[in-house]
Write a structure and sequence with these properties.
This protein has 281 residues and is an alpha/beta fold. The protein has helices at 15-34, 74-84, 87-109, 121-124, 129-139, 153-158, 160-172, 189-192, 214-229, 242-250, 267-280, and strands at residues 40-49, 55-65, 71-72, 115-118, 147-152, 176-182, 199-202, 233-236, 255-256. The protein has an eight-stranded mixed β-barrel with strand order 1-2-4-5-6-7-8-9, surrounded by five helices. α8 (189-192) links the parallel β6 and β7 (199-202). The structure holds ligand C2E and magnesium ion (3 copies). Residues 181, 203-204, 237 line the site of one magnesium ion. One magnesium ion binds at residues 181, 203-204, 237.
Length: 281
Amino acid sequence: RAKAAGRGDFRIFNPEVDKALLERLALENDLRHALGRNEFLLAYQPEFDLQTGEVVSMEALLRWRRPTGEFISPAKFIPVAEETGVIVPLSQWVLETACRELKDLRSTLEYSPRFAVNLSPRQFQQDNLVEMIVSTLEKYEVAPGNLELEITEGSLMDDPEKAAFSLHLLRQHGIATAIDDFGTGYSSLSYLRRFPIDKLKMDRAFVTDIQVDKDSAALAESILRMAHQLGLKVVAEGVELPEQLDLLRHLRCDAAQGFLLARPMFLPELTGFLLDHQEKG
Ligand code: C2E
Ligand code: MG
Ligand code: MG
Ligand code: MG
């Protein structure tokens, strides 16, 4: 690269930058082929009702397993999938796979659990999103009331008109929607009020210190109070400690998700977990 520069124009060769760039290009290239090579899997993490202890829903979380056996975090590859457009076929794969696996689960459990799928901002802006979702549900005979879509505040703010239109359409079809990572974006509850959404997933950041820090607890309490006034259910994310769970229950949080209650699991383990949970009642 230094050679390509004009006479007297020496660029500084930075091995660190070059390494990062090469890694990024390799990741992009691998990601383009990963779908065809069957390298993706879904893990599911249940959400629990804080009053009854029942599993209210389970969130599908994408996993990329490289041929070496190494797992790559969605936090790392989802943004790349968004930039390269791979997100479009990939999200279709996520929905189809979740529906297919749900059918399996349904026959074992003898009831149909609700499940949630994450949508990135770019997916949410896709023109035929609702049709794509509805026809996939039909194909796998999944009732629309069994599906919940998780979107972030950013998905609403890019094009609020279009977002509101899609959300109304989803509601007409009986598909529920949740705001993921609530509190990390720049929207307020009064802003969210204009959109037909069903629940908020309160970000882990509000839960982490709740048991030791009065301000954190006060913040969580006010989110809960306002959300309830607007008729929204609240799920706490990232619950890791029993003290957090107790406090959230005390604050009348509706549901919780986190490593304390259940980790994300692949289908066989999830099936066992749900059967076990059902038995215990
Ligand atoms: P998210 O939707 O907010 O998912 C929750 C993340 O928190 C998951 O990370 C989950 O494993 C993790 N988590 C759950 N409980 C705990 C806990 O108690 N403590 C801690 N420290 N972490 C906990 P994961 O699976 O790595 O996913 C990261 C993000 O990637 C997700 O955040 C979501 O935004 C995105 N993502 C995952 N799957 C998909 C997908 O299929 N499509 C899209 N568009 N995005 C996805
Ligand atoms: Mg989510
Ligand atoms: Mg979340
Ligand atoms: Mg989160």
